[in-house]
Design brief:
Elements: E1 17-20, E2 33-36, E3 38-41, E4 44-47, H1 52-68, H2 99-103, E5 107-108, E6 111-112, E7 118-121, E8 124-127, H3 132-154
Antiparallel strand pairs: 1-2, 3-4, 5-6, 7-8
Length: 168
């Protein structure tokens, strides 16, 4: 899949979104942003847009790419999310685009793309607030359950305290 869908962003008609580069130089304290169309991993795709009309253009582009390459979209795994962020005082901002603007004409391969509040990408639950705490909470809980499932073994009095694996 990496090789096959690697060209999906080629000739993308939209400029993409600005994303922090993370690189600081000696002159500038704030890193220069990078222009990013989206993310690709195996057969998963995240497309980024700054406005609803750009999102429509991306949907048209991806649909044309799918038709040309005889691929299908798993619409049940798709969703449109609006990431709003905080204002200059650190308070959450309200949605920039009316909900109707994000829902109209968002079709992939003739299928309506739903507007979602959360989306799972590569096993990580992403929320519209991009809250670090909200994103890691399910992972912490999963780790806690795993450790607790080992508790009977780890607390068993006949389990040797030290363990050295045998090598053959």
């Amino acid at each position: 899949f990496n090789t096959f869908i690697n060209d999906i962003f080629d000739n993308m008609p939209m400029p993409g979104c600005l994303a922090p580069s993370g690189k600081k130089d000696q002159v500038h304290t704030d890193p220069d942003p990078l222009r990013c169309h989206g993310l690709l991993f195996a057969d998963d795709l995240v497309a980024l847009a700054s406005a609803p009309d750009e999102l429509i253009g991306i949907c048209v582009h991806v649909t044309a790419w799918c038709e040309e390459n005889e691929m299908q979209v798993g619409i049940h795994k798709c969703g449109i999310m609006e990431f709003v962020g905080n204002n200059k005082d650190g308070f959450p901002m309200t949605a920039v685009f009316p909900e109707e603007a994000l829902e109209c004409d968002m079709l992939l391969c003739g299928q309506q793309v739903p507007l979602v509040e959360t989306h799972t990408y590569l096993g990580i639950e992403i929320t519209t607030t991009l809250s670090f705490d909200e994103i890691i909470a399910p992972r912490v809980e999963s780790g806690r359950k795993t450790v607790m499932s080992l508790a009977p073994f780890l607390s068993c009095p006949i389990t040797p305290v030290s363990y050295t694996p045998l090598t053959l």
